[in-house]
Amino acid sequence: MAKNLDMLEQTKLDKITSDLLRHIRMNKSFVLWLSFLGLALVVCIYAYTIQLKEGLSVTGLRDYVSWGMYIGNFIFFVATSLVGMLISAVLGLSGQKWAAPLARIAEFIALAFAAVAGLVIVMDMGRPERLLNVMLFARIQSPIVWDITVVITYVAISALLLYLPLIPDIKMCADKLTNIHPLLRKLYRILALNWKGTPEQAKLLKKSTRILAIMIIPVALAIHTVTSWLFASTTRVGWDSSIFGPYFVTGAFVSGAAAVIIAMFFYRTNFKLKDYITELHFDKMGKLLVLLSLVYLYFNLNEFMVPGYKMKKFDAIHLRELFTGAHALLFWSVQIFGLILPILLLFFKKMRKPAPILIIAIFVILGAWFKRYLIVVPTLEHPFLPIQNVPLNFKFYAPTLVETMITIAPIILVLIIITILSKLFPIVPIQETIEHLEESKK
Amino acid sequence: MLRKYIHSKTTLAFLFTALVCLQSFAQDWDIPANKKSKNSYFPFTKETIEDGEGLFLKNCQSCHGNLGKDNSLKSLKPTPPDLAGAKTQERTDGDLFYIITTGRLIMPSFKTIIAEEDRWDLVSYIRSLNKKYIQVLSKNDPSKSKLVVVKMSFDSLSYKLRVDVKANEKEGVIALKDAEVFLFAERYFGRLQIDSTHHTNNDGVAFFSFPKDLPGDKNGNINLVVTVGDEVYGEIEAAKSLKIGVPTDKPSLTEKRAIWNTVTKAPIWLMLTYTLILLGVGAFLLYIVFSLMKIKKLGKE
Fold first, then answer.
1. Closest Cα of chain A to B94: distance in Å?
2. Which residues are B160's β-sheet partners?
3. pLDDT higher than 60, residue A18
4. B267 touches chain A (CB under 8 A)
5. What is the pLDDT of residues A318-330, one digit of tens each?
6. In A, which residues are within 8 Å of B259 by CB distance?
7. Which entry of A141, A186, A324, B244 is 20 to 30 Å from A14 by CA?
8. Over 50: is that where the pLDDT of B25 sits?
């Protein structure tokens, strides 16, 4: 009888392993999707070569609005990457077991967005071959230097936090996957670091993972706080705010949570993971998104209510432009469709089912992108000294087609990275799923 | 009393506005005859044109545009003319020199910014595209200016600076009468004119009242410059440092360590914090790498 039960248990474990390893293979849809992304990237790279040849004059950037879509895109990338810390560190350390299957998705997103964020900055340079000068003539007092430091650190820690819990799973990939290229198997063997699952190894791995999970919290907070200081350390209207750090961090969690929900949906349907990424996960993520959005709404209220009550001379110009002026349509769309409506809708359980929450998450992430645009551009259009004796296109920023394509390029690059990562490694942690199953039985 | 006060104030304001309007409506420069006929005492050459061009690019081009290209800044009122144009070229050298020196409305005065010789270089550059132009040299003998001696002395009781202008001619010392005298104090950017322009009296002496609150260096020294313009002797410049200012010891803003300073003068607390955080994070990352190596080693056994 006991033997039978053991066998039943074994088949169950085998099923989990094979289920979670199933998506690691080449198939038609993967090749098609990747070649579509590759083609789109080539087109965007062509646009970038135009910019390299002609300089930034091919963009809508001019003397006054010198930070446009590119920098908005950069903040969006840094912001979205923060979710890795939230899900695998904060939820993981606080014992939220339901979040365990989502940790790796969050880490993929974190690593891809953070790694590409640096590239976005290089794309905003008219003379990228002078990039080294930024390091050679760096001033330690400049928030830009701090930003470069924390972004690099965050990429390193994110990569490690992704890799360490993967080691037992990589071992399984090396042992159990059939039909893979010998070179890939060799790569798995190398990455598995002779993993045998001995108690000493397990203890070391657990301790290291824990250190990383704790360390990533301050580093992630630092990366987005410092990014906000790039703005807040100036005296410009709309940026000169003491709550810019927490305002950016909460905004980052909102867009990151939305990105995780979107990724969850696609992995669940395409990789047949319905038993592992369940409706419960969507429900919980929905509740998390509401909580984060409410905090973000609270910061938005502070950010606009306080200067809006006083309407100081230059603040008034800026706020009128947002509330009723040239940027009003975008501003209210972002606030209503990207923040207020999602909050109201997600209060209902029905809206936290996979399909509706996917649509809501798409609105939230679009809102998050345009929100960054609204943080960067309107402020630059209203300098303290009046704009005089310049051509009309210096006064109002309008992105060009080339600029738009160069902005899309990093988004495609992130999709490529996430796609390849999820075809190399199991998207739901196998070892952890088995451990949780055993723990729940005890 | 109050009414009268208000009344006089409104009248003043009205007069002032009227004056400004009149001035801006005045179409042309009002140039005194003796300035009009003034000429350079050195001939315009390739070198003077080259020097003038450099000065032109720095000081004039941003509004007047390039010579002969008609690309001056049209949005300014009154519109700055293209200086190779007929209207400018019809003027005398003295006119151009006067205009550059004094300025009017939005045209700034370069009296204290560009030295006299350089202002003539500018005139030579402005003339450079005009093929019909024939230079008229000043009848003054330029070597005569070397005979002039300018003496400055300060009377601390009346707080006046006395300027003596004398020429050492062969036949004896001659006082320069009715010569135009400017007094300047040197500062970071350009020169500060002190008191107004004076003319020497029959003894070749001019008095300038000196402000009591002019800041000097640590010891109160002020570098003074006197320029004298005379019909016969030309332009003469003399400099002298006098201890008549208020001693001022303000360290330069970039002297101490500060957040706005260069990297070599960064605040110590910042460098410490940055380094400590980097070292701390680096130590933990190293520990992780060692752990991974240990895991690998354990697996081999």
1. 32
2. B155, B209
3. yes
4. yes
5. 999 999 999 999 9
6. 141
7. A186
8. no
Of B263, B291, B299, the CB nearest to A138: B263
B298–A198: do the CB atoms touch at under 8 Å? Answer: yes
Question: B74 to chain A: nearest residue by CA?
Answer: A389
User: Would you state the pLDDT for residue B75?
Assistant: 81
What does chain A come to in residues? Answer: 442
Compute the nearest-CA separation of B201 from chain A (Å). Answer: 48
The C-alpha atoms of residue B67 and residue B61 are separated, in whole angstroms, by: 9
CB contact under 8 A, A140 and B262: no
Which residue shows structure tokens 């039978």? A4
Decide if B202 contacts B163 (C-beta within 8 A).
no
- Comparing CA positions, the residue from A424, A437, A391, A382 lying closest to residue A162 is A424
Q: How far away is chain A from the Cα of B256, in angstroms, using its nearest Cα?
A: 14
Contact between residue A220 and residue A154 where contact means Cβ atoms under 8 Å apart: yes
What is the nearest CA distance from A140 to chain B, expressed in angstroms? Answer: 6
Cβ partners under 8 Å of residue B141, min gap 6 = B41
What string of H, E and C letters represents the secondary structure of B112-176? CCCCHHHHHHHHHHHCCCCCCCCCCCCCCCHHHHHHEEEEEEEECCCCEEEEEEEEEECCEEEEC
CB contact under 8 A, A157 and B271: no
What's the pTM? 0.78
Q: What is the pLDDT of residues A349-377, one digit of tens each?
A: 999 999 999 999 999 999 999 999 999 99
pLDDT band at A82 (very low <50, low <70, confident <90, very high): very high
CATH number belonging to the domain at A2-441, selected among 1.20.1630.10, 3.40.50.2300, 3.40.50.720, 1.20.1300.10: 1.20.1630.10
pLDDT at B18 (0 to 100): 53
In this structure, the strands spanning B205-209 and B160-169 are: antiparallel
Is the predicted pLDDT of residue B5 greater than 60, yes or no?
no
A 335-394: CB under 8 A from B: 388-389
> Is the confidence at residue B22, as pLDDT, over 60?
no
Mutate to test the interface with B, among A141, A150, A209, A392 (most CBs of B within 10 A): A141
* CB–CB contact B299 A160 (8 Å): no
Residue numbers in A near B274 (CB within 8 A): 140, 146, 149
Report the complex ipTM. 0.88
Q: Where are the domains of chain A?
A: 2-441
